[in-house]
Batch of 2 targets.
Target 1
Amino acid sequence: MTRRRLGPRPLPVHLGVASTLWLSGLAALPLARTGLLPWHPELGLEAASMTPALKSADLPVLMDAVSDAARARFEAFTRGVEAYWAHPYAREAREHASVWQAGTAHLRSHAPAGAPILLVPSLVNRDYILDLAPGRSLTDYMAARDLRPLVVDWGEPGTEERSFDLTDYVEQRLVPALDAAYSIAGGAVPVVGYCMGGTLAVALAQARPDQVSALVLLATPWDFHAGGAAWSEVLKAYQPVFAPVAVPGSVMPVDLLQTCFAAVQPTRVADKFRAFADLEPDSDEALLFVQIEDWLNDGVALSGPVAADCLFGWYGENQPVRGRWRIGGETVRPEALTVPTLNFIPAHDRVVPPESALALAQAIPGAMSAHPRAGHIGMVAGRGAETGCWRPLCDWLFAYAK
């Protein structure tokens, strides 16, 4: 079979981790049979109830059953990957005019007219998650309601950006992009930030309050240790690996960052591809899966200093919620914001735990919150995105856009 796609990236890591974990059940069986296996606390009661049956079972038969189960999972995973590679979908690039540029960054207008809205996506993924495909496009929906989405397209780090830290991206890219949007609007504009783009938007609103008429935060992290400390522990282990590339002039490759994600949720990728293997290839569900996976695997490298700021400063030291995150020497303080703010906190977010985003919502005076029953990506591009996010977002924005 001819390989059509890059993902899931990095495939050798996902294959190796999944097979190792599934086969580790063989090594764990003797301990499980004696009740000495240290189960996760959430599984303790269930494991205790299984111990008598494990003790009475014939060990060779039990080991064969575990081997068969591991093999079946691995085969389903590889079937899912092959089905993904073979899927006929190919995204057609949609050209949007650039109304401002600096370095590799552009501000792209997704409509010729309407009330301007500045949209700030994450630095680590492409901006087209906000314009995934016809019918699955937040920016199309906004344009149809007489809003003019102006989307920050960060681009790949170029020669200049390779030495940028988060302060540089805010001061030399985001503030000028806001200036351009302000000029187009003839006044203050609403700012909508998604994921880490929302975290940067908080700093932007603090730096330029007179140019921001309202702030919307979509699945925006703030307390990076909330919802479990897995990220913190993983980063402690990976710091010697990251350190050589987390320096000015270097970049953190997409595959290295994806390896870090895999360490936090080791079988997450394998599990979703096993589920994909059972879908009808021509179903809408399969199409949406492929569209999102193509976007996920089309990631962007981070400049070395940004990688250090995010991985060590945010996830490692939890600087934002501790009042230690600074942009241009100024501490970013959401409690000092005075702009009207609406937080969308998806209830089933595995990337930004709801507790992380809620910490930001609670810190901003008078902030409102919405809790769509969706995940991190599904909220902006999934089947329920229109009712759960797009419509209430636009309804709220009308009061602040012009």
Target 2
Amino acid sequence: MAELEFSELDFFKKRLSSTERLLAIKQQQIDSLLEITRAVNNNMPITALARIYENIIHAQLGVKTIALFIRDKDNIPMCITPGDLPGNIVSYDVTTKFNNISYITPTAAFQDEILKDFEFLIPVMHKKDPVGFALIGSFSNDSNDTKEEKLKFIQTITNVIVVANENKKLFKSQIDQMVMQRELKLAADMQNMLVPSDLPNNERIEVSAFYKPHTNIGGDYYDFIQINENEIAFCISDISGKGIPAAILMANFQANMRILLTRRYSLPQFIEVLNTKVLEITKGEKFITLFIATYSYVTKKMTYVNAGHNPSILYNNGEIHLLDKGCTILGMFDTLPYVNYGELTIEPNSLLINYTDGLSEAANNDGEQFEMERLVAFIQQNNELSVSDFNTKLVDKVIAFKQDTDFDDDITLLSVRFR
């Protein structure tokens, strides 16, 4: 009887000892999870998280070999635990090889000699997409915990590391988006400052503009400049490209143009010098189409140069004139091959329509473009409207023509009534 009691006591001691070891293991695992969580909350780099991860896997769980793959900023898998791993593991195509694996799988199932040093694959899933993979080598022989329990814990900390990396990427992407949106807003504000907001409407001239960029920052530009008491200049332009580079180029272009207009060049000389300035700014990588005209209130003469832009349309004394004399686009050649100019006497109540190709090339569902013929017909039918009403009605007509297709370019109108 005493001997039986001793055996039962010995059994309970062993059971207690085993339970204490298991509790110690679980406490260690909890401490490890806390360590990783603190590191994540402190925004430690992924390389530091990888070192903590490796230490836990190697030292605490007795796993000899580990390869953890996460997605980089371009969503390309990379191994963050290269250590002494051979190159064919570090560069292993996990996306192709494991793309359809969503649960812990023995590596023997893949029948790949390259994976001979590993026993298990642990995928990390986001919804239905894999965002990370861990290749786990053999475990050390100990009785502290079962292999299944160790795998569950490895799966847990692997998920923490991989999800932390995905969250970092998402946060950085959100920050980048916020910075970009702020830059775009600043550029859009700068662009809005460049175009005149107060256009004249008096006994000598009436001017109205419409500008709708395709994106937040377009490449179209227009301007109205009072050269002196009796002379004005106005222009419309299309700058290649969009976004912030176009806004910066636009600012430089406007500054150079306004300075040159004060130097009393002839219009052909002005264009040649402006072309040189554009080349200095763009290094031949951007181009500008431009229609620019000067007009004298005294002589009623308008002189213009069309540098590769859509022909402005003048309704003058009942006749239509397409203003296409000029030169090639600016910024393409060091020296312009030729520069011509046009000069007209403007009759009272004449109407000049300046526009960009976003209007004339607006296409409907059938791919048919609005084109100049429709624009000319519209001018002939609506030339008595105020320029503001003219612009509004014309834009409405283009929108109706396009049916349900989206605009794929900026639209700019600068309409001038000579009184």
